[in-house]
Amino acid sequence: MKFNVVVVGAGPGGSMAAKTAAEAGLDVVMLEKRQEIGDPIRCAEGVGKRDLCDIVKPDPQWIAAEVKGFRVYAPNGTSLVMSEDKGGAEVGYVLERKIFDRALAMNAASAGAKVMVKTRALGLLHKDGVPCGVSAMRMGEPIQIEAPLIIGADGVESKVGRWAGIDTTLKPKDIHCCAQFLVQDSSIDDEYCEFFFGNELAPGGYVWAFPKGEKLANVGIGVQGSKSGSGEPIRLLKKFMKSRFPNGKVVEMVAGGDPSSGVIESATADGVMLVGDAAHQTDPLTGGGILNAMKAGIIAGEVTVKAVSAGNFRKAGLKEYENRWRADLGKHIARSYEYKEFFVKLRDNDFNQLFSSLKNEDISNVDLRGVLRVLFKLNPKLLWELRHLVV
Amino acid sequence: MLTVNRYKCCYCGACVGVCPTISLELVDTWLEISEECKECGICTKICPVGALESRHEV
Lengths: 391, 58
Fold this sequence. Notes:
In chain A, helix 1 (12-23) packs parallel to helix 3 (97-110), helix 1 (12-23) packs parallel to helix 6 and helix 6 runs antiparallel to helix 7. By secondary structure, chain A is of the alpha/beta class. The longest helix of chain A is centred in the last third of the chain and has 25 residues, at 319-343. Chain A has helices at 12-23, 49-55, 97-110, 160-163, 232-244, 290-310, 319-343, 348-357, 368-378, 387-390; strands spanning 5-8, 28-31, 46-48, 63-66, 69-73, 79-83, 92-95, 114-116, 119-127, 130-138, 141-146, 149-152, 175-184, 192-196, 206-211, 216-224, 249-259, 268-269, 272-274. Chain A contains ten helices and 19 strands. The longest helix of chain B has 5 residues, at 14-18. Chain A binds chain B through residues 33-35, 40, 42, 118, 120, 155-159, 162, 168-172, 175, 177-179, 223, 225, 228-235, 253-257, 259, and chain B through 10-20, 22, 24-28, 42, 44-53.
């Protein structure tokens, strides 16, 4: 089988890349190793409303809930509320990823891409030392897919990059270990995404409760890998459930690893571009990765079109992808990484101090960066390390 | 030897992402461990649900 490009992984990043390339008339194939696209999820499912709408027109079926804003809790229980339009990229809509991911894959298919499920890439094919496709296993049968360009959108467990010589192995301090319950409980706030901080609650991370409508919510935890231990996230999540939603009914459970490494050194190699979690394009502070993956997927698709017409699939020919994703999402990821590196060091008392310093401030109309500016003004000593990010 | 408790594993792939020797592979719900595994133990500490265990034979 011969194609212009093979996309490995049918998540939001892969599907956007496949759709973009197929719309331009290229022969595209997208492989998904699972037998069902989008299931099981590994995600809290929150996305910014405006940012999502900038990329794609949302179908109401994709959206489980629309929130008014978010509420953040300090370790001592003090809370802070911000409205949705000020919250940044991770709140606004809570998606139904099982439907969303499948819809994006179907969009790619409608644009002309071939989709192959239960098809797992096993390695790269090479010709004269340059990648020229992938070998794969489809329903137990080995197949070869020839394509001069391979887009690795194969998630946190990405192999495509490592096969191409890009070291994407995550260090324990640069992965957040997550567990999540889908919880039904009468005390769930259907209108706000909630975040809970505290070193006992979630070392180096946080607990979240993202409503999915009708007293249902994704209640999950992310723990920094270097501060975690075998089974620690699920243990801490159960503990949180006991104190916050003692009568909550768990109707689904999932786990996951969330890259929080910051900007990767290289997301391209000869014949290869990496997209989404595979390229660690997740926001290291919030853990949000859906929109970044989609944006990167679109850029990768566009660069694919140019590379095919120029006939240059070498790393140098894919430079535009590298430049564009770095200039766009890379900048935010780099900034978030610095925040993350700082916040994982905070003690509970520091968190409490930051929250209480805002007690008499009116921040209802200030955006996230504005809040940080106010925080810095009020707590210069504590936040001194972040001064270059705040001004 | 690295063992996976398949009754616990939620097949999330976090272990695959941290494996320095590319010895793990997630095939749908099935985690495969290859012979290249050096039992460094990183994956066992990372597993969110505690499904991985490194058992050293005496």
